[in-house]
Specification:
By secondary structure, the protein is α/β, with parallel strands linked by helices. It has helices at residues 48-57, 73-83, 102-116, 130-146, 165-177; strands at 18-19, 30-31, 62-66, 90-94, 152-157, 182-188. The strands form 2 sheets. A 4-stranded parallel beta sheet has the order 3-6-5-4. α5 (165-177) links the parallel β5 (152-157) and β6.
């Protein structure tokens, strides 16, 4: 799903708000602003056709939103997020280059889900190398998703920041094995190589 939009996303300046770690084994702190959509400028152009299409596509297991930098992908997702029923559980994670690490990425994924599902009981796994940590963390994360008692949508923005082969495999596994009540929206300038044919797009 690719759209050429016209307005560049706007950022918020200032000192980021820092959260406590997901668990005692996590060595870094989390930035709250990554766990919610950025503020959309009041002058943003409304795109009812694209928003309606995103509404329809978001009911599938996986929705992909790709376009070049500055096309307004994040702005479109932010506008969509503002429109949806507030009772819907929509977890948001804005990725950056530092998230190309299994402990950091899964720490943020867990924290993002806990924003809308506070009882989410996943935790961080450790391994001898990146592949071990990614595999263990993805299994724990999937099991916790299966225990959720409500539908959930996860939005991953700037997903092109994930480049590690081990992490791409872990995300691929999570997408394929997450329960039917969990839906995913991946947004970025480019997308990891995933087994999309096995998912309902």
């Amino acid at each position: 799903m690719a759209h050429q939009l016209t307005r560049r996303d706007t950022g918020q300046a200032g000192t980021p708000e820092v959260a406590t770690p997901v668990d005692g084994a996590t060595s870094h702190h989390l930035i709250h602003s990554k766990l919610k959509p950025p503020h959309a400028a009041a002058t943003c152009i409304d795109r009812p056709t694209l928003l309606a299409k995103l509404d329809a596509m978001s009911k599938h297991k996986l929705t992909l939103l790709t376009a070049p930098i500055g096309s307004g992908k994040t702005t479109l997702l932010t506008q969509w997020h503002q429109r949806v029923n507030p009772e819907q559980a929509i977890a948001w994670l804005s990725l950056d280059d530092a998230d190309d690490d299994p402990m950091r990425l899964f720490s943020y994924l867990i924290a993002a889900v806990r924003v809308v599902c506070p009882s989410f009981d996943a935790h961080i796994a450790h391994g001898h190398d990146t592949s071990d940590a990614s595999n263990a963390s993805s299994s724990i994360f999937i099991a916790a998703l299966c225990r959720l008692d409500r539908p959930l949508t996860l939005v991953l923005d700037d997903v092109q920041c994930v480049n590690s082969p081990a992490l791409i495999r872990a995300i691929d596994t999570v997408l394929q094995r997450s329960p039917d009540q969990v839906r995913w929206i991946l947004c970025g300038r480019g997308l990891p190589t995933l087994h999309m044919t096995q998912l309902r797009l």
